Amino acid sequence: MTIPQSIFSPCHGVVPLRPRLENWMAELLQDRPRLDALTDRFGAPLNIQSVDPFRRNIARLTDCVTDYGLPFLPMFARKANKCLSYVQAARDMGIGIDTASHSEVEQCLEQGLPGDRIVCTAAVKDRALMTLCVGGGVTVILDNEDELELLVDVAEGATKPVSVGLRLNGFERDGTKLYSRFGFPLTQVPTLAARITASETLRLDGLHFHLNGYSAEDRIAAILQTLPLIHKIKGDSTAPFFLDIGGGIPMNYLDDAAEWEAWLAQLDRAIAGDRAPITQHNDGLGRKAGGEGKVDSYPVAQTLVQEDWMRRILDHMADGQTVAAHLRDAHISLRCEPGRSLLDGCGMTLARVAFCKRDSGGTPVIGVQMNRTQSRSGFAEFALDPLMVPAPGPRKEAIEGYLAGTYCTESEWLTRRKMSFPQGVKAGDLMVFPNTAGYLMHFLESRSHQFPLARNVFVTEGNAGAVTLDDIDAG
């Protein structure tokens, strides 16, 4: 369907960063009575989600890699979203799950995921987590010597060898070492592999890395530096062996990615004093005068994304053949751990406007009944325009102002970007933050002040009446 422009008119940034919407989102945003019914029933703030885009994103990524004749198992990064609906969809589509805690592993096993389709990459693994993984047949990605020693102790007496992978660091690109606090140095891998191979309780099934950022070139460099290690470990063996390249598949959340550069240009002008501020107190959000520095924002505008990014890696030529061919020749199964790229288009967070006032400087403040942790990742900003669904009744004058949340601090802003409300804004309007399913809903959510966490409901595309509460909230 064509997204009606009227959806974007009630609220947008003074310099717009218009979100790209799914059809199911647009249909719902035009149905105020249904939104009211959902918030009356489940409360607000409310996370409204759909697994239909999730399934589509899985299918596209899987089709892309299988075109290269490579064995492939994507492992959905569960930490990106806590809802069990995605676990169930991943289970039914035959992909795996990347888990990062005892509860995540336990829930996946309870949902019927076989252990050999679960990998545990938790940053800290205690005895209870290791014991659960051993009992459930889960692959454990080892990060350090202490974890290895603990797992050897836990696995003693196990009925079958425990599947493990080694996490790597120390990669270089163009003469610069890629920093990571995780993993074993590449130079230690052959010795560690020999130690595990000699063990009666552990079985080395693969190697793993996860690089910060979204660079395809970094991944290519890491793969090419890992391949010689794999040859040393497995030789000519055709036994199953995986290379897991982690997550970080980039995404574009904007309707027009060029708007990001336009917004940056206006931010630079504002910082320089050449135009009115577009952020609170003319905050550069990490950007410095003269265009130096990066805005500390969740990445919303990237041009090489999803399957095209994966093709860039697999098509790269090295020593006369592609990366994909190198992997095939070495009998390696490719794995990756996508989170937000599989959750693209899957969710939005909505909350009610409680008031509109002015601060001590005379600037409009719009109070919204949610807190900043309910639509925020580890970045300081989510640079994507929220939408507004107006309440019935007469409107007030047009204003420009800032969205404030419920925590009792001066820093409690849902976004530090100035918003424009051409039709005004009043109590009872609904503010909607689009495309929040990947990390933004759950990664930092907090119950400070004893506010309840937002509940999570799922709708089905094309079925206006169907709505279910996710099992994570059903108890």
From TrEMBL:
**Any idea where the Orn/DAP/Arg decarboxylase 2 N-terminal domain is?**
66-258
Q: Which GO terms describe its molecular function?
A: diaminopimelate decarboxylase activity
Signal peptide as annotated in the record: none
> What keyword terms does UniProt attach to this protein?
Lyase, Plasmid, Pyridoxal phosphate
As recorded in UniProt, its EC number(s) are: 4.1.1.20
Quote the InterPro entries the UniProt record gives.
Ala_racemase/Decarboxylase_C, De-COase2_N, PLP-binding_barrel, Y4yA-like
Alphabetized Pfam families for the sequence: Orn_Arg_deC_N
Q: What are the names of the required cofactors?
A: pyridoxal 5'-phosphate
One GO term under biological process is: lysine biosynthetic process via diaminopimelate
Q: What class of enzyme is it?
A: lyase
Superkingdom of origin: Bacteria
Q: Does the keyword Acetylation apply?
A: no
Q: Give the protein name, as stated in the record.
A: Diaminopimelate decarboxylase
What species is given as this protein's source?
Answer: Sulfitobacter pontiacus
